[in-house]
Amino acid sequence: MSNLFETDPWHLITGKWDSEKIKDYEQALTVSNSVMEISGAFEENNNKVKLQNIWLSKPAPTAKGYTGYQAEFIDLNKIEILINDQKIDFAADQIEDFVLDLDLHNGLLTRSFVVIRDNIKCHICFKRFLSAARPDLFVNQLEIHNLGTRPLEIEIHSSLDTYYNEESKENDWEILSNNSQGNAGSLVLITRSNDFGLPRFMAGAMAHYMTDLRSAASTEFSNYKAENWFRGTILPDQKTYFEKRVVVVTSLDHASDQEISNNLMTESDEADNLTFDELLAQNTEIWEQRYNQADIIIEGDNALQQSVRVDTFHLLSALGVLKPLSWLDEAFYLPAIIETGHFKEAQDLLNERARELSALIENAKVTGVNGILLPELTFDGFESEPNPDIALFGVHRTAALVFAIAQYLEFTDDEEWLQSTGKELLINCARYWQMRVQYSEYREQYVVLGVSGPDQYEMNVNNNWLTNYSIKWGLQYILQTIPAEFDEGSTKELTNIAEKMYLPEFEVSGSSIKLEDDEFLQKDLSKIAEKLTIFDQPIAKKWSKDQIARSPIIEKPDVFMAFYYDSLNFNQADVKANFDFYQKYLVHDTDISKGLTALTAGLAGEIDQALELLESGSSQFTSFNRYKAAVTRLAVSRGFLGLQVQNEGLVLNPQLPEKLLSYEIPLIYQDRFLRIKVESSNCQILMKNGSDLTLKVNNNQKVLSDGASVDFPL
Fold it and tell me: How far, in Å, CA of 554 to CA of 344, rounded?
């Protein structure tokens, strides 16, 4: 596990202070909600907030001539403390009893320490959180306790700070208004004009202060920050109280800067009607509801429990975040949140793709085909990554969208959405594949040339197995799901493509090995990941593109994606054969690779190896990453538990790694709420509520009713 924190099932906590690791702490303690994201930077350090679903443009070599990136806003968190006219300095002051603690129950981040300087001794404690109940609200509480024998003169400088540099050309925002007086301060900003005719966004922040200190005039006025000063005296063994509440309002919800200013005042006043404890209780209640439907409980591996819960925290923190949108949202994030009952948020992601439909159609037309072509990363439907080879990746991204739609429909049975929105997406996926393939007279089958799968080490190849299989599987699903949307001629052609799709494979000991692409076996297969040294890592930076292209080294496992998408159509022996063949070539250079490989190991029956992969993939606490978080959950639900959906029922093939005593996972399926616990010799399934459900567990079938539980032997 990471050496940043102690092993604790519900906390990222440390009593160590290591100035060399401050950036690691900031990254690992990042918290987020649907409006903003803030790192774990300390109050006296710079900490710009990132705004969710708002993007900024910059020139780039893309088809549209620009890229988008997540908007960085202002520092909402800035609080400087002066004790007897001298700022706290971690480098110069004596610091004792340091504690840093992120409570995963509710996202409350606590930092406390004792400052000793000359005749001064005082305890400082910050407590802050982003509200899940009020996503526009950030709250930071500060308490200073005089532990010395003399009075302390305290001065607090708190600000909303843009860190604006008038000489810099990199500033993203223009300031529309700046107000600061008494116990409040506010800023309203607008993104700078761009060369692309793209929308400009506005955002505002207002800070309200609650304190027993007196307000003081600032002597350092700046147009680029709203700063409030406070002063007071703390007698020995006395405490002072200071609270900073910040609300953020954006033009995603309000049309003008005046509306933003008015709503800042309204939202601030509403929050001020509640105490810190009441606001925290609201937030905690939302998190309790979320965990009730999502929390995975692991017995027998405390470190894994901690890392899985961190990923669950990140997974749930991302609810309501739509931009930027990646094919990874369809492939992993949507299936993970839909298992936890967040059907609305899943539909919102799919509806966002529907809103991008005209851009996705244009992407396809640029490459000479009809239908839709999904970008790697997008804010508006067009490619936002500086990658001109968008056509190479279209097939597997389209497959991710079809998979996401299939998952949504299976878990919700939402026929109305299919008819109103989903079918148009599916029709255009089929159109794209219909023109992307070509018939090979040589093979007498359909092939896909000049393509890349998710593994970006294998670029511009012919007949990547995953992409070819995805077309076969995807077209069959689309024709089965919306057969009335295709005329007889189109149905015949699409069926013919699916039936005659070339799949590059070869046989080893009676098992079919799915080839990365046509040329994979011509590579030097002795160059395997197990032989690489630290001097080779990371491959993308240490090796040339030519060297990578000629090696069998794999960034992340393409073939394994199909076993995940269509697990019902592959037997365990075939999955195991491919797992054994490919894992030695994997370098896991992406956040999702080890989780996806762990999932595949579970499908292969290699459950102990699946656990090892999941543990090693969670060995570092990184910042907010909804894709890694999603793959972690899926590794447990689809890999350990063997969850599959078949003919209006659930299929489970649960396994328990030898190292674990048990694991328990909640699952929402249509109107049913299940809790599933796997122990050494038994799988118990409780239906907390819902209509009758057919279950097939390890080939034993039973019907489960509301309030009942059933046991299956492993």
Answer: 36
* Contact status, residue 100 vs residue 7, Cβ threshold 8 Å: no
CATH of the domain at 644: 1.50.10.10
Confidence of residue 541 (pLDDT cuts 50, 70, 90): confident
* Residue 66 identity: Y
- One domain for residues 452 and 325: yes
Is 383:62 a contact under the CB 8 Å cutoff?
yes
Reference 459, options 571, 558, 358, 359; nearest CA is 558
The first and second tokens of residue 503, run together, are 């799949």
**What are the helix (H) ranges across 482-538?**
488-499
Of 320, 252, 244, 263, the closest CA to residue 286 belongs to: 320
Q: What is the pLDDT of residue 622?
A: 58
Assign 38 to helix, strand or coil: strand
Do residues 577 and 563 touch, judged by C-beta distance below 8 A?
Answer: no
* Domain identity same for 312 and 250: no
Q: Which helix (H) or strand (E) holds 180?
A: strand 173-181
Containing structural domain, residue 259: 11-290
467 phi and psi angles, rounded to 5 deg: -65, -40
- Which two tokens mark 453? 């799968």
E-strand stretches of 327-447: 377-378, 438-440, 445-447
Mean pLDDT of 249-276: 94
Q: How many domains does the chain have?
A: 2
SS3 292: helix
- pTM across the whole model: 0.95
